[in-house]
Amino acid sequence: MSNLIKLPPRNNLQKTILVDCDGVLLDWEYAFSVWMNEHGHETQPGSEFMYDIGDRYGLTKDQGFKLIKLFNESAAIGFLPPLRDAMFYVKRLHEEHGYVFHCITSLSLDVNAGRLREMNLRKLFGKTAFERIVCLDTGADKHDALSEYQDSRCYWIEDKPENSDVGHALGLKSILIEHGHNMDHECPYPVVKNWREIYEIITS
Questions:
Q1: What whole-number distance in Å separates Cα of residue 23 and Cα of residue 164?
Q2: What is the model's pLDDT at position 50?
Q3: Would you state the pLDDT for residue 5?
Q4: Residues in the chain with pLDDT < 50?
Q5: How many beta carbons lie within 10 A of that of residue 149, not counting itself?
Q6: 113 & 169 share domain
Q7: 130-135 and 2-3: which strand pairing?
Q8: Which ranges of 42-160 would DSSP assign to H, the alpha helix?
Q9: Burial label, 37 (beta-carbon count in 10 A; 0-12, 13-18, 19+)
């Protein structure tokens, strides 16, 4: 785990929002798709409803994972576009309502990949919105990282159902961002289409 910024004391978490990065803040799928096409890979029919990259591109799981890792550790990872309306509402939550964000991302343990991720986030969302950025290994489970916030009742924004469920079980207020691959997930917490809905939940 690479903690780029120190975790504040627990009593300072009332205005803290926990966020995943890819598929929540940044449009990783779009950037990865462009990169894969440039490298001669084409998606399979119905790929928009598949989570596993191997399935999406007609590859084995191992081949898919290696390509994800290669992409995540390439220069391209520093230039991902924002997801949907994330940039507008993250800035509003931070600048108008005083919230700060802790990003927990299963990107890579590569130091330069982490620096590019931090650069990308600060360029799009501002220099002060992210109080902490935690880079886990590629595809890593988030249980241990989220355990630091257990029972804090922080909001936890994710797009991977397994990670949302972990946060919910740990006493966080999970919110799942809808994508083609998670539309069938049944859960006791909100499922939203965009950051406008997240903004309304948090500020209501």
A1: 13
A2: 77
A3: 46
A4: 1-6, 10
A5: 21
A6: yes
A7: antiparallel
A8: 53-57, 61-72, 86-95, 111-125, 143-147
A9: exposed
